Amino acid sequence: MSNSSTSTSSPFRAGLVGAGGIATTHFKGYIKAGALVMGFAEPFESTRILREKEWGVKGYSSLDEMLEAPSLESGQLEAVSICTPNAFHFESTLKAARAGKHILCEKPLSMSLEECAEMIRVCQESGVVLQTNHHLRSNLLVQAAKKLIDSGAIGDVSFVRLRQAHDWGGSKTVRPSFGLFQNSGGGTLLDNGCHMMDLARYFCGEVGSLYARTASLRPDIEVEDVGLVSLEFKNGAIGSVEASWNATGWEEGFWVYGTDGALECTNRLGKRVLKHVHRSSGGGWEEVDVTVHDFNEEGGHPLAVQNFIRSVREGTPVICTGQDGLESVRLVLAAYESARENRALEITT
Ligand SMILES: NC(=O)c1ccc[n+]([C@@H]2O[C@H](COP(=O)([O-])OP(=O)(O)OC[C@H]3O[C@@H](n4cnc5c(N)ncnc54)[C@H](O)[C@@H]3O)[C@@H](O)[C@H]2O)c1
Fold first, then answer.
1. Of the candidates 106, 78, 122, which has an alpha carbon nearest to the alpha carbon of residue 18?
2. Of all protein residues, whose CA lies closest to atom 27 belonging to ligand 1?
3. Is 0.70 topped by the overall pTM?
4. What is the average per-residue pLDDT within 34-57?
5. How far is Cα 290 from Cα 335, in angstroms, rounded to an integer?
6. Residue 31 CB neighbour total at 10 angstroms
7. What is d(CA 149, CA 84) in angstroms, rounded to the nearest whole number?
8. Alpha-carbon distance 18 to 92, whole Å?
9. How confident is the model at residue 70 (pLDDT cuts 50, 70, 90)?
10. Residues 33 and 107 in one domain
């Protein structure tokens, strides 16, 4: 359901909740999509002033203030991106949905399954679209991989490896949005691992059980900064999710192995491409061909925003639902329990 004054031919009108790092990516995504950013909510005055100058958009000190602003009444705001620390996704989503705004919510959807379920319920009840921003689903290389897997091009998938790891750009400290448990609800597994859990489900289907190990090596944080999870999928394949805030540089990659081929994609040492490894006519170990898929525009973030706008305006299914967001949180929370108890856990829904 769209606001009554929304015409599908007029520019999309979005707001942002939170104006930190990822909000800039959403801002750029909306502008690239030809949308208007009508306002943003940000409690910290210095950040607000900075972004007002940078974006040329009015900042409000809270979501309430933005929703009540006379200039944004009468359906002037169609949708909001929730870009706050994890701890505020729940209340911001409920508030905005009840005000009739469509929601593009950053990951992890929230910090508990109960909160995620309530967010989904309230968005449904309010008739608004909810998209979880597991933006990698919108990445063209991921889309190409998904098509190859679903078409059977690599045969039956037996193993998938997923990795997202970085070192905060070499910074000695971790921002409080992420390092303090009350803001984040978890460390690298919730932050980075939830994207990888989502990709695991996207590529291989539902997970039946998992076993995890975590560690906290940085002295200044309350959460884990390394995590390794082994997954067993319901279809019999197995996989691993690796997440870290102690890697040198920035790594994001996936490796999918099947009975008739493999897919490899990493940004580790250069531009990211998708390599499709398959057997050529011969039978030996050397007889493999590689097809390289390369896209000039590979970014998932702008395309995730475009997909969201299309779902709101045209009613197409969202690329990553609220339930998908809940399921990746379910897997990360199960991983925490597994690591605490040092045992494998069945995933029950
Ligand atoms: N999809 C991705 O790849 C990706 C990447 C980075 C961050 N994220 C997610 O985006 C969210 C924000 O991360 P970030 O890196 O931008 O953090 P950040 O700390 O840079 O920015 C968060 C901003 O939200 C503001 N804020 C806090 N409480 C608020 C409230 N109640 N209402 C409005 N604003 C509030 C803070 O003042 C801050 O400016 C997190 O949930 C994070 O997991 C996603």
1. 106
2. 84
3. yes
4. 97
5. 35
6. 15
7. 34
8. 10
9. confident
10. yes
Choose among 320, 339, 325, 318: nearest CA to 109.
Answer: 325
Express each pLDDT in 97-143 by its tens digit. 999 999 999 999 999 999 999 999 999 999 999 999 999 999 999 99
Over residues 60-72, mean pLDDT? 93
Indicate if ligand 1 lies below 6 Å from the C-beta of 47: yes
Domain CATH for 100 = 3.40.50.720
Using the mean position of ligand 1's atoms as its centre, give its distance from the Cα of residue 20 in Å: 5
Measure Cα distances from 155 to 281, 282, 286 in Å. 16, 18, 19
* Domains: count for the chain: 2
Cβ 191 under 6 angstroms from ligand 1:
yes
Q: Is 43 in the pocket of ligand 1 (CB under 6 A)?
A: yes
Estimate to the nearest angstrom the gap between the alpha carbon of 282 and the chain centroid: 41
| Residue of 289, 286, 263 lying closest to 276 (CA atoms) | 263
The neighbouring-strand residues paired with 263 are: 256, 276
Q: How many CB atoms lie within 10 A of CB 74?
A: 10
Pairing of strands 130-132, 102-105: parallel
Domain presence at residue 306: no
Place of tokens 């009975």: 259
pLDDT for 239 equals 98
Q: How far apart are CA 20 and CA 92, in angstroms?
A: 15
Q: Which one of 16, 81, 83 would you pick to mutate in the ligand 1 pocket, going by the greatest count of ligand atoms within 8 A of its CB?
A: 83
How far does residue 185's CA lie from ligand 1's centre (Å)? 13
Q: In this structure, which amino acid lies at residue 349? A: T
Q: Please report, in angstroms and rounded to a whole number, the separation of the first and last CA atoms in the chain.
A: 29
Say if ligand 1 is within 6 A of residue 66 CB: no
Give the nearest ligand 1 atom to 134 CA. Answer: 1
197: nearest Cα among 230, 223, 226, 157 = 230
Are 116 and 155 members of one domain?
A: no
Contact (Cβ atoms closer than 8 angstroms) between residue 212 and residue 336: yes
80: containing domain: 13-128
Do both 209 and 235 map to the same domain? yes
